[in-house]
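Chapter summary example.
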Amino acid sequence: MRTLLRAVLVCVVAPGALLAQAQGGQGQGTSQLPENPLSRFQKGAYKRITDILVRSAEKMPEEDYSFKPTDAVRSYGQVVGHVADAQYLFCSIALGEKNPGRNIEKTKTSKADLIATLKEAIAYCDKAYDGLTDATAAQPVKLFGNDAPRLGALEVNLVHNMEHYGNMVVYLRIKNIVPPTSEQPPQTPQSAPKK
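The structure predicted for these 195 residues follows.
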C-alpha cells in the first residue's frame, strides 16, 4: 500500500514540482505562469515517466525478461516492448504521421534490444512533446476514430506509460528488486566530527 501511495504522490506531486521549477525566478505568491504552461507541464511529466521506464527496464536482469507472474499476462520483456510500441502509436498520431509500426513486443526478446528500442521509441516521441505548444495542443487529431486535441493523444500516452510502469513495479517487486520510484536517495557522507 505504501508503494502505491508513493507512486500516486510521484504522479501528482512531481509534475507540479517540475512546473514550479520551470517558473524559475518568479516570486512566490504570483499567479503568473510561464509561457505555454499546459504543454510545458505535459513535457515535464513525460520526461519524468520515460526516465523511470528506462531505469526500470535497466534494473531487471536479462534472465528475468521472460518472467511472467502468470501465464495470462505479458512477460517483463513484452511489457517493455509494448510500451515502446505505444510510443510510436500515440506520438505518430500527435505528429500527424503514419505509425512506424515497429511491432517491438513481438519481435524483440533480449534485454539489450528491448532497452535500445525503448530509447529509440522515446526519442521518436520526444519530437511530439518538444514541438508542442499550448496553441498546437488544441489542434484536432483522430484518436481511435474520434476527434481529440493533440494534447489528448499525448495525455493518453502518458497515462499508458504510467499504467505499465505499475505492471513493471509488480514484476520487479516479485523479483525483490526495488523499483526506481521507491529507491532511497544517495546518502551524503557524514561530516567528520570536530575535535
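To summarize the output: The first strand starts at residue 140 and ends at 143.
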